[in-house]
């Protein structure tokens, strides 16, 4: 057993932390969130330059890492600094393109992606409520190409993406596990309409509607035979990344709360001397430590060769994080009192991000049910 | 025991329902039901409608324009209003200052100020909290120094809800610096258009402007704006807090919120079924619904124990804690129910005019913002931790 | 609205509380629990004499009450004193016999019951896990009478009962709602074998096995047409009684815990001055207050004329009590520390009883699921 | 990072498994798995088997008969033992007094006492807690007054686990009444057959005799039974506590307990389905299973951070709290799982010979008794509240 990061991972984390601490004060984040593109173009370029994106991709995709702990390292740093730049799309889409039916066909896009092109997975749909096989979007063969129709919900940075990786159904009913394929739809393709909006936790997202969108035959990233596992891999990657991001954000929220308890005085003494608050702070610390273990388990399973165990432990992690993140958010605000409710205090933005992570790639209940189902599957296999 | 309403109470409830059906403007109810933002005019309009019916100042005796209700009637009224989607009565003038003036004000003060509360001439806000004194009111630092027939006030107030709509503020100020912390405090009425007053917004985490800081620099306040005796402020403050707590459980808001939540959870689907049929979601919903069923009866029990009016004692801490927990849980489930559509933050969609700009299921636009905004419930009005301290001491003798 | 008891109810509660406080020190309870019959015969006679049993029965059954608040009053007192005597069987069986197909046929038994005869409902079965329609016991028509076969689980005072009220199936599959009937089986009927044992919370119980048990035609208490509602009424009565009993036990456990916090000193001060413990004690107090409201709601619904609403609010109450009772039990022990773990301290027996009440007439999860199902039924009706 | 066992660690684990397969008496494993009561002979027998293999004293260095393991090996060993259903090693001599003697004992003390721990000649118990000093050891009152070459000991100890099986007790006694509370304490070894010693049972709420009170009246203890210097007892006590905490999370017990629970929940039916498929029960089970999966890794992280042996610091408080919460929750679910069959309390059925007298599903006989008995986990060994105080101070600086 070995719980230490590699030298490369440690160096990357250090340089990301240092860069973000210096260049990303919270006001810059707020300003970027308020722009139409919803993130800071220069900061994004800086992150790309530091190697944050190549670290998310395997060497086969022109990256320098792409393993579970590489992803966890980058996103934990991102979480500490509350980064709203489009890292998640890069990680998920990059990992998925690298597993395409014909990976070499996507080399150019992977190159652009590693250089900072904004991309997005467009999979979640209205009424899917995180169910991975819920795909009402359809793809029909037509004149050697494909015609896509459907509605994709709350795509992160969906309005800024240079391309969307779209799941669509070739056959079967809306929630069938089989019959799904993945398509690449570059920006500017006719029939794609994008409704962008800001997010309550900062940054931007969009609903993406596809109306008779024609793409060529080679837009097929993965046909029904492989798409299921590629999609599962991408969803696992996204959930892992969000767990690590939450971990970073929790660490900071906990530190801020501890500092506040140490310094804020009421009734003539530091409020951190009140035992009821002490014990609640300890509960938060324990929740963060358990979350760190959950992320480690998930990252290790991501690198393993058993997709069932990968998905089971990632479900465990996302359920853990969903619960702990919300607990840390709510309790951090409560322990701060009124000041924790204010926009001015950075803590409140950590709290919002922590709660909202539970609304991406499946919430606590979704992953708890998933953990139960996958555990049963594992037992049946054994 | 008999949990049913008496014939009189039933008749009263029917009268309230009829009034709400006839007089509550539908666009206000829509705003409230969908969690959209209310304007100053919206609130003032609803006050005027209630005033016209004589139902605005439910705590006031008839001689000053109140309806002369008992606690059960007030509970029924507030409950029905919430269920109908009526805006909340802005409490600072009607439910807080009013009772204080009636008990501690001079005759001229009553005659001058009470009618102006009812008819909307004045919009009051509350100057209690200070940056260094949130839950610990005894440590407040704002001073008022007598100078002839004026007080000169210096200091800073914070968390002043709707202070940007108000023209007046009632205020706790320190008039004797040498007294013990809880003594030497007085209760003063300040015009917000006085020189030296500055109201600055505090934006909350959901981007809302609802609370404010109020800076007071050499503000001259006529001495006849003192309520009660000098240095009697602590007594008055405690009296006022009991009134703040009469509807503290917010049962009506929770019942209405639960109904809204169920509508959403029936409309939203997961795995091809309405979310309300998802076992884990249904269990969360059932737990809070049961808690609320119990809390309704707990609230009524407390009211029944308060014979003939007045305000409950430490029981109000119970109602505060449980009431806020239930409301926050309902809002938390509402946020969960809309799934990824909790993320979009489209400010225009929080107004009636821009409601068509919302994305996602009905009710999604305000779900996350309301959830975050209402984290305040367990902090303001005496934090839940302070309430537990009170119960530990007064009820359990610890 | 009126939250006060009637004068009769108040007087009965006072006299029961006084009698039990004087005559039922915990050592007498322990001694009785260790006897073969599992309860104190003299004390039981005393309770009967004070009118505890008639209060549980409606006038139509020769009783003096039988309403929800009568039942709640008696059982709250019983819970305060940790009574192990066979009140529950009297309440449930009495209420059910009073609703028999031919109530007058049971007048003699009801008279004996009101005079203190021990009786028991034998309904729960192995693998039923509280599901009310789970009846694998069969009843077959034979030579003008009935033949019963089956196994009834953990029947309270089942070994001492002078008669058992047995649910058995005339038709249908094991968990069908229809096809169930109720039979009266007097003690000594051949084919009934009883395996008695003590209970961990005091008192006794028994598994009752019926092997080709012949009873006459008039042993039929309720045929399939009425049995379902009679059984539902009996189960509602039992759950209500247990909720009230738990409330009484919680009151006492909370008072004991408060007293201990006030008097026990550690680190040079009363442990009740430690804020973390204070806040947890307050949580218990709130749970007890909410439980009291739940019992009131349940008792009122028991008296109402809507069986669906009765069952829904009784499910709400039993779920509330299941959660709160366990919380009060576990926290009372924890706040007492080691001494709370000892047999010698009465508190520990209150804690055991509180937890074990969740194992009778359906546990927290059972009633939560039931509340959900009944709420849905109510909505469908509306 | 790499969560897999190294080749050496794997080989070690395989060796432990082989040993357990060959040497653990099946009837002991059956008792442990079914939660039946272990006799003194059962425990002594298992100690002897471990001693024969050289694996009894896992904390001791090789020179005194220990196996020379590091923390990861100890973790693997304890985990495998629990999974196999091995009895718990009685810790008082082996894991508590042993390390104390090795660090603070004189050479003659080590040579005399350590072998007797290993070969079972002595059965030690712990004399720490007193009626007035549960979590607050500094307030202990038992005195030892020097009288020639003896100490005369007077006082009362309590919660002395398995004291009725022991022939000796290590004990904290006050040797200087004038010193500050934490000073003036010494560490003394007392023969339980000395005149003036009386061991009285404490019966716990589950009817079990496991703990005792020990009354000490003018007990004369030879002065060479003092360990370390006079008044050094507090330092020794703290050192000992760290050893008490090395396997404090009890991961192996939880993993084994979870497996037993699943077996029961698959066998028990509700509504015609195995209980394990009931959505609410499955959710409870999944939550604790996930918590345990996380805790395993947390425990390994703590071990990895403790380079080359020794005992973890405040992290052990984390492991204590979470470990006991998980174990208690598993036992709580086991009790829930057996439904009404948690009620029967058939003492004979808690022995191997009387197991056929049980009623209900397999595993039901001990479900409630174990649940109640293990409420002690969060109380003894430094209550979870004390652990939180420690964390608040040392980790969070509050």
From TrEMBL, chains A, C:
It comes from Tepidimonas fonticaldi. InterPro entries: Acyl-CoA_Oxase/DH_mid-dom (IPR006091), Acyl-CoA_Oxase/DH_mid-dom_sf (IPR046373), AcylCo_DH-like_C (IPR036250), AcylCo_DH/oxidase_C (IPR009075), AcylCoA_DH/ox_N (IPR013786), AcylCoA_DH/ox_N_sf (IPR037069), AcylCoA_DH/oxidase_NM_dom_sf (IPR009100). Coiled coil: none annotated. Residues 6-116 form the Acyl-CoA dehydrogenase/oxidase N-terminal domain. This is Pimeloyl-CoA dehydrogenase small subunit. Residues 232-353 form the Acyl-CoA dehydrogenase/oxidase C-terminal domain. One of its GO terms (molecular function) is acyl-CoA dehydrogenase activity. Residues 122-199 form the Acyl-CoA oxidase/dehydrogenase middle domain. Keywords: FAD, Flavoprotein, Oxidoreductase. The keyword Cytoplasm does not apply. The keyword Hydrolase does not apply. Its cofactor is FAD. Belongs to the acyl-CoA dehydrogenase family.
TrEMBL record, chains B, D:
Keywords: FAD, Flavoprotein, Oxidoreductase. The keyword Lyase does not apply. The keyword Aminoacyl-tRNA synthetase does not apply. Residues 6-120 form the Acyl-CoA dehydrogenase/oxidase N-terminal domain. Transmembrane segments: none annotated. Its EC number is 1.3.99.-. It holds the Pfam family Acyl-CoA_dh_M. It is an enzyme of class 1 (oxidoreductase). GO terms for cellular component: plasma membrane. GO terms for molecular function: flavin adenine dinucleotide binding; oxidoreductase activity, acting on the CH-CH group of donors. SUPFAM superfamilies: Acyl-CoA dehydrogenase C-terminal domain-like (SSF47203), Acyl-CoA dehydrogenase NM domain-like (SSF56645). It comes from the Bacteria. Its cofactor is FAD. Residues 231-395 form the Acyl-CoA dehydrogenase/oxidase C-terminal domain. InterPro entries: Acyl-CoA_Oxase/DH_mid-dom, Acyl-CoA_Oxase/DH_mid-dom_sf, AcylCo_DH-like_C, AcylCo_DH/oxidase_C, AcylCoA_DH/ox_N, AcylCoA_DH/ox_N_sf, AcylCoA_DH/oxidase_NM_dom_sf, Mycobact_Acyl-CoA_DH. Residues 125-218 form the Acyl-CoA oxidase/dehydrogenase middle domain. Belongs to the acyl-CoA dehydrogenase family. This is Pimeloyl-CoA dehydrogenase large subunit. It comes from Tepidimonas fonticaldi. The lineage of its organism: Bacteria, Pseudomonadati, Pseudomonadota, Betaproteobacteria, Burkholderiales.
